[in-house]
Design brief:
Order of helices and strands: HHEEEEEEHHEEEEEEEE
CATH topology: outer membrane lipoprotein receptor (LolB), chain A
CATH superfamily: Lipoprotein localisation LolA/LolB/LppX
Largest sheet: 14 strands, mixed
Distance between the termini: 99 Å
Shape: globular
Radius of gyration: 26 Å
CATH architecture: Clam
């Protein structure tokens, strides 16, 4: 009998002694999303991204270039993941029209009566800075555009989370990019994006401010754009989003009059 009593109590003792669970230490107690990997960040944004076929955006832009300030109106039509049409006006007069796809770009300057048609890679020669197509489209939406595969590197420096890596774009004009994203710890909102082109030593810095409601869509009302080379700005722009509207279908039209001359760019 004693042996069965001992076994009974032994079973109770063993069953009552649960192994201690290993609790992973919270490495970022003051950063709610500090544990997020790059892929988790991307998934979060993909799930909350604005779903659209066509989008029309109206903005006001202050451009600082070569010590001069220019105030213009920029109207944009986006076809999701495939086309960007931009019209730049001043005092109600259209000066420049640009039609860009992932493969091509058409640039028409109505004031100088000039035009250019070429591959999208020529955008650098026209705008003086290399902007990948996907980054250009998401620029106004405040959505991240990761140009590199894999997780890359992550650094948490409260109140921001930084994701960065290098990406090599194998094209006819070989170029290499280094990219960084900064998100807020508390809400995982995109705050800054930086892209450096190692070939030209030029850097694009985009900072998002004043997030709010624009025609029912959660967007950043102000976007600061800075182009840097050798730690010196070569272009600055403050973009203010005024209106955003979605459409099932839109048309774009860009005409090159017969008396316009083709631009020579190097």
């Amino acid at each position: 009998m004693n042996i069965w009593v001992k076994i009974f109590f032994l079973v109770l003792l063993v069953s009552g002694c649960k192994p201690k669970q290993k609790i992973s230490p919270n490495l970022y107690p003051d950063c709610k999303y500090g544990y997020y990997t790059k892929n988790q960040a991307k998934t979060k944004f993909d799930s909350s991204a604005i779903d659209f076929n066509w989008m029309k955006i109206k903005t006001k832009v202050e451009v600082y270039y070569e010590n001069e300030k220019h105030s213009v109106q920029l109207q944009i039509r986006l076809k999701n993941d495939s086309l960007i049409f931009a019209k730049i006006s001043k005092s109600g007069i259209t000066g420049v029209r640009i039609l860009a796809t992932k493969d091509s770009v058409i640039y028409v300057d109505k004031l100088k009566k000039q035009f250019y048609k070429g591959g999208y890679s020529d955008i650098e020669k026209l705008l003086n800075v290399n902007i990948p197509f996907d980054l250009l489209q998401n620029l106004f939406l405040g959505e991240p555009t990761f140009l590199y595969d894999g997780e890359g590197e992550k650094e948490v420096s409260e109140p921001l989370i930084k994701y960065s890596s290098n990406v090599f774009d194998d094209t006819e004009n070989y170029s290499a990019f280094h990219q960084v994203h900064f998100f807020t710890c508390d809400s995982m909102k995109l705050q800054k994006v930086g892209v450096t082109d190692w070939k030209t030593k030029k850097e694009i810095l985009v900072e998002y401010k004043k997030q709010g409601d624009i025609n029912g869509y959660p967007l950043n009302k102000k976007i600061e754009f800075k182009g840097m080379q050798d730690n010196k700005p070569f272009i600055l722009a403050d973009v203010e989003l005024k209106r955003v509207k979605l459409f099932d279908d839109l048309s774009v039209f860009i005409e090159i009059p017969d008396d316009y001359t083709e631009m020579e760019i190097k």
